[in-house]
Amino acid sequence: MAREYSGLQMHHQLEAKRKRLTWILGVSALCILFYVLGAWQTTPSSQYDVYTRVGCDNNSATPDSNGSNQSLTNLDFASHHQVALDSSKTISQFPPCDMAYSEYTPCQDKVRGRKFDRDMMKYRERHCPTKQEMLLCLIPAPPKYKTPFKWPQSRDYAWYDNIPHKELSIEKAVQNWIQVEGDRFRFPGGGTMFPRGADAYIDDIGELIPLTDGNIRTAVDTGCGVASFGAYLLKRNILTMSFAPRDTHEAQVQFALERGVPAMIGIIGSMRLPYPARAFDLAHCSRCLIPWQNNEGLYLMELDRILRPGGYWILSGPPINWKKYWRGWERTKEDLKQEQDAIENVARRLCWKKVTENNDLAIWQKPINHVGCVKEVMCKSEDPDTAWYRSLEACITPVPQVLSSDEVAGGELLKWPERAFSVPPRLSRGSVPGLGVDRFIEDNEQWKDKIAHYNRIIAPLRSGRYRNIMDMNAYLGGFAAAVAKYPVWVMNVIPAHIDYDTLGVIYERGLIGTYQDWCEAFSTYPRTYDLIHASGLFTLYQHRCDITYILLEMDRILRPEGSVIFRDTVELLVKIKSITDGMRWKSHIVDHESGPFNPEKILVAVKTYWTGEATKRKPK
Fold first, then answer.
1. Number of domains observed in the structure of the chain
2. Closest CA to 294 of 372, 255, 346, 230
3. Which domain-ending residue is among 381, 412, 443?
4. Is residue 300 situated within a structural domain?
5. pTM of the model
6. What domain range includes position 316?
7. Where does it reside (predicted)?
8. pLDDT (tens digit, 9 = 90+) per residue, 162-220?
9. Which candidate in 196, 287, 504, 544 could, as Cys together with 276 as Cys, close a disulfide (CB 3.0–4.6 Å)?
10. Which of 1, 28, 525 is nearest to 250 (CA)?
11. Residue 305's CB: how many other CB atoms inside 10 A?
């Protein structure tokens, strides 16, 4: 009996173990099944229109580029995450500003500018409102605002209702800057010194210096008008930063951006231009009315600072070819000769070489290094890249030291387009503390995945929906480099006072950009960008200034139906969304491109279409 009992007990023990094992395996299988289902449900969405993505129907599935079905999950963190930020009192809905503010440029306001000295054009420099003067309302579009023409048609046409100013078409009628044709403007490509058009003018320059071999990639056009020079350089793969002040030539920079051409409001006055040293391969002035010879050559010295070693300066208009034009310019021969002699003298002090003077064109070239240049007039400042609210200095900005007279100071750059992804000399030489070659290579690889993800969560970048793009915190310029193959251009912004200055790196990649403190307004007109990218920006600024005003500034410069991509922590994105919900934006949070387990998330937003109503009221 004992043996039978022992055998029976062993049988029951084996049966119990088998049941426990079956139960464990069953629970494990269920856990794995639910995990797979959960991961599948939070997979990023596929390519479909951004308006569908920010609308009500967030559960519709569509095939991705690989043919698989994915659905976009609208992530909701609002009830679980709170963070204290520097922001204004909660406003559920921001009201529209008066229509008189439709073209408001906060830091280039004409009324405020009149309070400042006219010496050295100080009254046309940046003068931003105090916090008490800043607007807590939305800048309205004109009543009949239309979506701008797509590139490349936009180079030649713009809707009259978007920029209802006929002044330039009358004032510059003979010079063919701009013409009114029914409900639109047409840009024939003319200019003060190129009556045959910018294309023919650039061809003339191309006969004198090489423009199409890839060595010249970045250019700056001072006093750009409607930026026809920059517009036609684009077909030669030259990217131009065009700038002009907000002056009597009403809305010239606004016209440039409406055309899809890079431009900023700016002026050479008493402050450095907001660009790093050794940024541009070419500088251009076509009757830009800048007194280059004044103030001991101060303005040419600033141009020398931002011009790359070996770069060119092109000058047309007074005083060049004064023997032919002196009567038309209503100036004396003696006056014009004296001006040109003074410019030539400053150029010699800068060690520039005069390449040619041919008819209406004069071209100088900056030396590739400062071997043999006069040392007594060199600037003593340690950082030539510092340019945000930095006063001009009557001295020559030194270039990096070289070992021989035939070495390019700062390092020689590859031709475009190889330049975009090659390691910039500033990084290979260790000029940016904390950033090296490995980080640059890693960043380029990361942007391949990021752009693929963006093409799924917004309208594809190749679609033509976007032309003017701004990267508010550009870092190494990886975003701009990755989208260079699309019909877009990117204004790369490096926030002022940041720990690392990478704007010089961005220019060495053949891209363009500027410095900016986002506690202030950007130097542009309203409704000038189609897509804004803000990665880590609010982490940087959350304790520096009121983020509500940064978001209102983004709304000011964003076109109706334009898009914004925020990348940041969930806590910050929830706060941003709570503010933009009151700005007539539609938005939602989606996962990082690496999947749902990355703590960084993405907020995709679209500014809805709305316009102001016609009114005769004026701003106070």
1. 2
2. 346
3. 412
4. yes
5. 0.86
6. 146-399+407-412
7. Endoplasmic reticulum membrane; Membrane
8. 999 887 666 665 567 788 999 999 999 887 788 889 999 999 999 999 999 999 999 99
9. 504
10. 525
11. 25
